[in-house]
Amino acid sequence: EERVRQRFLKILHYEYGYPKKQIATEVPIFHGSQEIKDSSGKPVRADIVVYESNVACVNRNQGQIILIVECKAPNKTAGYSQLVSYIYNTNAGGGIWFNGSGDDSELDCYRRIAAPTNSLIAWPGFPRKGESWESIGRRKKSELLKPKDIKGLFRRCHNKLHGRGTEEDDLTMDMVRIILAKAHDEEKEGEQPDFYCTPEEYADERLWGIVEARIQSLFEDVKKLNSGVFDPHERIQVGSRAICDVVSLLQDYQLLSDLSDNVEWDLMGYAYEEYTATYLKRRSGQFFTNRLVVDFLVKAIDPSYSDRILDPAGGSGGFLTGALRHIRSKIVLGDGTKISKQRQLDTIRTRLFMVESSKRLVKVAKTAMILNGDGHTGMTQGDSLGEFSYFNETILAQCNKGKPTVIFTNPPFAGIGEGRITDDATLTRFQVSKKWTVQNEIPVSTDEINNDGVPPEMLFFERCVEWLAPEGYLGIVLPKGFLDTNTYLPARYYLFTHCKLLAVINLHKNTFQPHTGVRTCLVIVQKNKDSHPVAGNYPIFMAISKQIGQDSEGKPLYKYDKNTGGTTDELDSDLDDILRNFSEFKTDRLVSSEYCFSVSRQDVDSQYRINPQAYMPSLNKTLREVAQIDEQEGWSVSTLGQIEANVRIFQGPRWKSENIISETGIGTAVEPYYTPSAILQEKHDSKKYLDLSRATKKQIKIIEKLRVHRGDILITRSGSIGRVIMVTKQLDNAIASDDLIRVIISDEDLRYYVYCYLLSKQAQDQLLRNEYGSIQQHLESVHVSNVLIPIPENPEILSSIIGNSKMMLKYKEDSYIAATTANRYLTAMISDLQSDKASEGTT
After folding, report:
1. Which residues are registered as beta bridge partners of 369?
2. Which of the 8 DSSP states describes residue 654?
3. Helix (H, G, I), strand (E, B) or coil at 616
4. Which CATH architecture has domain 411-557+583-615?
5. Whole-angstrom Cα distance, residue 545 to residue 542?
6. Does residue 744 surpass a pLDDT of 80?
7. pLDDT tens figures, 687-728
8. 3-state DSSP call for residue 357?
9. Over 70: is that where the pLDDT of 774 sits?
10. How many C-beta atoms surround the C-beta of residue 640 within 10 A?
11. Does 267 score more than 60 pLDDT?
């Protein structure tokens, strides 16, 4: 309750202008000369009292009170009768009940009416310093205040709508419509607003329709100005009472600011974007780009007012509002004259463009741009993967092919097996939609369309590069698989053919949580000046983000204060550090570290793999150190795939086992089936069971290939990759998951040496270097085959390693036997005790 009171004291002082010397807390209330007491005889205290003057406050003059506030804890709803008692026993003009819960009923205002009867009635607000209760309603535009708590204001409006029983998504769009109506009213000429609700209108149900008509009329004007976005019959859907509620909350505030007031615009824009990201439902995999990512990409490319900026998958407008904020800040804080700054601000407002397929999101984006300082005329609806000639006339005239100098975007991703584009008419427009083959270890494109479909982000990447002006910049969010998987090979080839790769940043896995678990990256490129690839070698910046300021549920994580041990207000993200390193890289001052470094273009292999993890200094240092052993006398270095003539490294065949899963695990043809986690467990608790009597001939053949034998080496290839197990005698001939890579070596001593080596840092670093995947990390058998391993000419050097490796397996087998035996004795003991107790009961 005290926190609620402190919060409202700030509202009274900072937003409504009441001096601290006119505000008192814990004020005793008197009836005549007697102090009012509760039913238990304790004196009652008003939580907050606002007096007409400093003197009245000092003297606690009950005849000079403007208003009284009753505060309650967020989970409390009582207190109205207390407030009534305080008001009627003083000369207060009204009162406020507040519990700060965030619900639609967190704040109620009441006006005291003396005639015809002494009563309290609901009021649409309360007066500022120097105002009367009657002045609330139609304030002049010049008298509107800038809200201090914008997030709270939007939340209270939303909750008012929610309290009227409207669907969450519909009411969020209604909030967008109402905000647009409010912004349009502020833009109109004249001092008198049309966006208002008087106390008389608020209190009389018969007058609510008049308020609604005014607001609907403002929205009609918005529709006419944006006919390509809003349907002709679109209206604000909530009822007249809900509209009155929201208007009464918004009418005292000014949403739009002077163009040069970048701080106010930033606060308003951030609040609106956070509001829509919180409440707007995601459709077809939509999610809002993390603001830290937006700010990073915008600052990394650093556009200016003269740039023509486009987002072809604009969503709610996050990248464009981020660009507008960044450029406006540069202008306002720059050295230009007042006139030059104003002209630059006017210029950038007309050079921001968006194409978005969802009309719903275009409305959200337009509102975001208005609340960030305008620039909304370039927000258009359309299909960015369609023909250029079909785009909105604004795009055709001002941002057509070859015109944008900067593109920021977070395109839709395909996900796992879904969302791929299969439409031939679309695919034929793109080079990356062709199938590829490998000839002499070199990938080669064919003229055949990939009929299995192409992830939309690949097509968006090509379209962005095609759309850019020569030497223009692209900053794009992509799934991490774009960097090294075969699926995205055509796009990587297209990248190096048409662009110079400037930077690749792997983002933290929680960056877009909880909306999607897809692992993502940022790619920054500059389009070539002409059709020829960039000649010669050049450096590429790479980084891996390890902190993103939120957990997997999207809850913020803050940095710790080294002195106090408590948390600060700063999000625990390393993107600012990466940005600083990128700036140093651009000026040849980068000092490489484990997670921020540069590589040479010539280091990129023929598959155009550009995953920073594969180039991490420590992992590559390990690889170099192992490779250098080959130069030492008496030693050679081999890959595991060539360690002996009969070595076999493979993963089990993919198959479906749903039809033969046994729930009971009972039956003559039932056998255990060991998943990777079951193999790793000491007692193999999580194993499944297969009923082979229900298996088809094809399944039986696969099962035989999946069987493992004592001495086989198994390596996990999905999720927690690189876990190494040697099959014990207890698992000999067991059926093991196809998610395990098998390493079969006939030479026993060599097998034990390889097993021990695969557990070492030298081998684990090589495996880690090759992991890939956007949803879950994976490893392929070829990666295991390519692991470098040192081999001595004199096998005796390995005798201690081999001997201890054999002991390790024996101890593991003996441990299993001991654990099983102990468990058998324990079970027998418990059974005997239960039998004895049962016998006593019978006796």
Report:
1. none
2. P
3. coil
4. 3-Layer(aba) Sandwich (3.40)
5. 10
6. yes
7. 999 999 999 999 999 999 999 999 999 999 887 888 999 999
8. coil
9. no
10. 23
11. no
Instruction: Answer for the pair 240, 211: CB distance below 8 angstroms, yes or no.
Output: yes
The pLDDT score that the predictor gives to residue 36 is: 86
Inter-residue contact 53 to 66 (CB < 8 Å) = no
Please indicate whether the domains covering 257-405 and 411-557+583-615 agree at the CATH topology level: yes
Q: Structure pTM?
A: 0.69
pLDDT at 543 (0 to 100): 93
pLDDT reading at 253 higher than 60: yes
Q: How confident is the model at residue 565 (pLDDT cuts 50, 70, 90)?
A: low
Confidence of residue 154 (pLDDT cuts 50, 70, 90): confident
Q: How far does Cα 95 stand from its chain's mean position? A: 42
Q: Would the pLDDT of 183 be above 90? A: no
Q: CATH says 257-405 is which class?
A: alpha beta
pLDDT in tens, 41-61: 888 899 999 999 999 999 999
Distance, in Å, from the CA atom of 749 to the CA atom of 515, rounded to the nearest integer, reads: 50
Residue 522 sits at φ, ψ, to 5 deg, of: -115, 135
Q: Using omega within 30 degrees of 0 as the cis cutoff, is the peptide bond preceding 470 cis? A: no
State the architecture of 2-136 in CATH terms.
Alpha-Beta Complex (3.90)
Tokens of 103: 């619900």
**What is the percent of the chain with per-residue pLDDT over 90, rounded to a whole number?**
40
Q: Is 670 exposed, middle or buried (0-12, 13-18, 19+ CB in 10 A)?
A: middle
Q: Which CATH architecture has domain 637-805?
A: Alpha-Beta Complex (3.90)
Confidence label for 841 from pLDDT (cuts 50, 70 and 90): low
- Please report where in the chains the tokens 């493979």 appear, as a residue: 650
Indicate the domain borders of the chain.
2-136, 150-250, 257-405, 411-557+583-615, 637-805
| CA–CA distance, 664 with 666 (Å, rounded to integer) | 5
In Å, the largest CA–CA distance within the chain is 110
d(CA 791, CA 476): 45
Which are the contacts of 316, defined by CB distance < 8 A and separation ≥ 6?
273, 276, 277, 280, 288, 361, 364, 365, 368
Burial class (CB in 10 A: 0-12, 13-18, 19+), 88: middle
Q: How far is CA 550 from CA 278, 317, 574, in A?
A: 15, 22, 12
| Amino acid at the residue 548 | I
Nearest 5 degrees, angle CA 145-CA 175-CA 108?
Answer: 60
Per-residue tokens: 843: 């006796």
pLDDT band at 165 (very low <50, low <70, confident <90, very high): low
Cβ-based neighbours of 259, under 8 Å, separated by 6 or more = 328, 342, 345, 346, 349, 373, 374
